[in-house]
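Notes from the 1:1 (GR / supervisor)

We went over the backlog. Supervisor wanted to see one worked example end to end before approving the batch request, so GR pasted a single chain during the call. The sequence is below; no edits were made to it. Supervisor asked that the structure be written out right there so they could see what the output format looks like.
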Amino acid sequence: MRLSRVVLASLLALAGLLVLVGPQAAAGANLDSTEQDLVARINAFRAARGLSTLTVSDTLTAAAKWMSADMGARNYFAHTSLDGRSPTQRMFDAGYPAFGTWTGEDLAAGYTVTADVLTGWVNSPAHYAVLVNPQYHAIGVGRGYAAGSTYGWYWAADFGGVVDTPRAAPVSRAAVPAAAPQFQSHVVTAEQGAVPDSGYHARWSAQSPDPTVAIGATATLVLALKNTGSHGWYNDGAGAPVVIGTNDPQDVDDSEFAGDWLSANRVTSTTTDYVGPGEVGWFEFTVRAPKTSGDYKLALRGVVDGVSWLEDDGIFFTIHVREPLGGRSGLSSVR
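Structure output shown during the call:
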């Protein structure tokens, strides 16, 4: 019989005074039938004890699915992922406002059916405490299988204290009415000067809500791009890094917003050392509010300096700058 194992749950509570500002992931983190069954069993377990049922969160689901897949692919079993992130950090990176509410995580490995997963958690005091915590209102679950790994199947359930709402994708400035098709017989070949593909491509995946900050205050923002190209993105000197550059127009000097930026027109690189093709890279950075109140637009776009700009998905933040209430400094976005 395959070895089954569960680990201690993580449970974090933060003061309600924190600003609930976190990136909002795109919808579409769908559960498969087995994952749906696990959620149903957890909700039935809670309902039988007079607890509220949990709403499936796209962002928590994205975090849980990533964790279960990563544990299998890299053959480990721990709450801290191999890139050094805690469960709460991964939830935040996936788009959940994790640093302003309750969060918890249950993991399991080696189980093949949902009933056994839930039984394992119920029989463990630490996991049971997560399952019956009345502070939780949202959940995301994921399972992953990796042949040749120690346990085969890996399960993750991420819990949160608030039900978040996904944010719609920004409208691309490139989305203009299609022109009538034109036909011509001329074919451009490589020998005639066709530009070879750089292998670097990206698509918008998620971003923080537009911040409202007081004059002179700062806010932490997050942007996520999916690597749709054939080359990996490096942030450790092993290859060309993908960074976020200012846009509209390209390379505009936006130093008035620069907090911890690389330069006046280069914002930041990925939070992890490597983002492979098909994976999502996260970019976290700080913006500083200008000295005059108003609404400011910060347009951004991925770039590999010396190689190519990535696709222009019309990404921008509107930074709402307000006078401090009562002459006091406003609260900035915190982690």
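Supervisor's comment: Residues 50 and 134 are 10 Å apart (CA to CA).
Batch request approved.
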